[in-house]
Amino acid sequence: MLDSPIKAAAAVAATHGISGYTDQAVQIGLRLIGALLVLLVGMWIARRMANFTQRALGRARLDTTLSGFVRNLTYGVLVALLVVTALGVLGVPSAPMVAALGTAGLAIGLALQGTLSNMAWGVLLVIFRPFRVGDFVTAGGVEGTVESINLMHTLLSLPDGREAIMPNGKVGSDAIINYNRRGTRRFELTVGIGYKDDIGAAMAEIKQLFEQDERILEDPAPGVWTSALGESSVDLIVRAWTRPEDFWATKTDLLRAIKEHYDAAGISIPFPQRELTVVQGSLPAGSPARKD
To answer: Helices 94-111 and 113-128, interaxial angle, to 10°?
Structure first.
């Protein structure tokens, strides 16, 4: 990088002797000192600017992962500009350096396009926040509770205790279902009663259970309706709203309570049955069961 100043110094020395060489050496020394000062002072300023950016993002309540990433990115860009500036102070043309950096950046981007895609989606997930830590979601076709979100992947805890590490590119490019976002969840049960049972009485038993369970929300209001006339039962559909953290317990407790109250009230919950009719004379000749 110092070829041009050294060649110039040699030319001056050949033309003007030792005094010219000394002057050129002084100029090179001054350029080196200037370049070092640019680097030292510039890196101090770059560090302070990067830290200021991180604090500003923290005051804006931005995610710590994203604020740290922006801080490091800001510092890296400023350092790269400082290096180019310092080389310019030394007398090295900046255009070839900028072209080289651009070429290197393009090559790195092509080699790491999958990684960069995950990183870009990580930034977008943190900014737009389609889900937060602790939410139960369906993301990338996987259901689970969000444990952590970073720039490269999202960690989900599955209901059976397993962990799923989902690349952010897959999470962001697929549909995301957030079960906690609105603060309430609705569950649905289907209960069958016998054709001879009183439908109104069966509905009243379930509505009484709504009032007894404080976990079932009044708004939106729960309800029970006749949904179908099955082969062996009249099907009632039960819908109720609860808080996300009470979803599973409330649903299972209500189902058990319906069974117990129906038993006490004498309301049947039938199971599928089949009737077989044997017609005399339909059996083949020679059968032991046939009587001519």
So the answer is: 80
Tell me the whole-structure pTM to 2 decimals.
Answer: 0.60
265 neighbors 259 (Cβ within 8 angstroms): no
- Which residues make up the CATH 2.30.30.60 domain(s) of the chain? 130-178
The domain 185-265 having CATH identifier 3.30.70.100: the answer here is yes
CATH number of 130-178: 2.30.30.60
Q: Which residues pair with 146 in a beta bridge?
A: 156
Q: Does domain 3-111 have CATH number 1.10.10.10?
A: no
β-bridge mates for residue 144, sequence order = 137
CATH 3.30.70.100 occupies which residues in the chain?
185-265
Task: Extract the tokens encoding 224.
Answer: 């029970």
All CATH 1.10.287.1260 domain ranges in the chain, comma separated = 3-111
Per-residue pLDDT of the chain (292 residues; tens, 9 = 90+): 445 555 555 555 555 556 656 777 777 777 788 778 888 888 888 888 888 887 887 776 666 666 776 777 788 788 878 877 877 777 766 666 666 666 666 665 555 556 777 888 888 887 788 988 889 999 988 999 999 888 788 999 999 999 999 999 889 888 999 999 899 999 999 999 999 999 999 999 999 999 999 999 999 999 999 999 988 899 999 999 999 999 999 999 999 999 999 999 999 988 876 777 777 755 555 555 555 4
Yes or no: say if 267 and 206 are a contact pair by the CB < 8 Å rule.
no
